[in-house]
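Input record (Table S2, row 465):
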Amino acid sequence: MVIDHVTVWGKCLQYIKENLNDQEFKTWFEPIKPIKLFQESLTIQVPNKFFYEWIEENYVSLLKKTVRKEIGEKGRLEYQILLDNHKEAGQRKTTSDKVWMQGDEIKNPFVIPGIKKMKVDPQLSDQYKFENFIEGSCNQLARAAGKAIADNPGKTAFNPLIIFGNVGLGKTHLAQAIGNDIVSKNTAKNVLYVSSERFTNQLIEAIKKNSVSDFMNFYQLIDVLIVDDIQFLAGRKKTQEIFFNIFNQLHQDKKQIILTSDRAPKDMKDMQERLISRFKWGLTADIQVPEFETRLAILEVILEKDNIQMPKDVVEFIAFNIKNNVRELEGVLISMVAQATLNQKEIDIYLAKEVVQNFVNKVDKEVTVESIQKMVADHFKVEVEKLRAKTRKRQVVVARQLSMYLAKNHTKSSLKSIGENFGGRDHSTVIYSCKAVQDMMDTDLNFKDTVADLEKKVQLSISTL
Ligand code: ADP
Ligand code: MG
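Output record (magnesium ion complex):
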């Protein structure tokens, strides 16, 4: 029986669909196209690199199971990436990365002891630069320390530099940007970026092959060592021991060490005390969740880089709602573009709402009188209760009238129920308030701007309300 890629992928999809919810399936699997089936390897095409990474990160075990089920134990999956980030014309096949690799082969050959002249491939990705790492108060210290290190690796007080923060906030980006900057300025010779996992796997290989001393020799020749996600070393005694030795040697030789972690050294469990105390020798800088303006700036950079056109209110909507993870900001954009091109949808606020809901648990769908009251009270810095009370203070009166005006125009509530929400006022008060607001807008341009700003916020139905 001859089976082709379309049939096989079709069957895979059936299985995947049974195991995912509708939205996930639609967002991440419908856009995939089967390309070919050669021997036991199925090639699928994804719209871009992010897509590939997202699938890898979130669905790899499901895919693995599915492919093995349909193709057999040796079944493998390869990716082809349709659009890449460069603005080159046409479509280009960029990669056919394998989803899972047998073992972990390293590019850097272990160096034979005694041979000191070698050039290491730094294993850096050139997409992570300082230039495209947006600065905000959330990352200021870490970024500044990184810059200083790049100019003088090993010679600042920031050794080691430990960058810590939650997932998706730019630790890897920043650590690699430092490495790339050093390479381009040539301020140090051998730069090496390695994930803790890879470091561990290399060590395990070396133990198997009885070549631990080669392994150590190799690492001791590095001038700038960047180890990503050191929290993965938790509980790995042997790896920690070897890492401790390498660390000491490099530090003593004034070589630069940069580490990232999803938690502060003091919160690292199952990590040797002596290693943690070494981490405290240098600088520990955290990266926080970016503030709204920073999120907006990050989105704008991505849009420009990928040459995507998107209305401003849509971009703002995304920045308002996706708060905790920069990777998700990118994810929303990419997923919107994928939906727009593949399902021929308009890139507008409706599509944004649809996509954003896949990423966050709750987006307010309806604006309520209460949410408007809270927003306006915040804006005028008055207590929200005052809007419902009898206060006649000017500031409160304006806030109250404006809240009524917005409630009338942006909710489905009747005049009567709006009035009730303001401490049992009647519907004629609401009508009067709306008229008063209109009059003020006609005479006071500043006030008009304020109203426009608030109306925009209401339309975005910010989820924090
Ligand atoms: P982490 O390693 O902390 O999990 P990453 O460094 O992988 O996070 O960042 C996730 C994504 O967000 C990456 O694509 C990265 O380029 C992007 N990113 C994070 N922070 C910023 C920033 N300040 N400016 C621009 N892009 C950022
Ligand atoms: Mg990372």
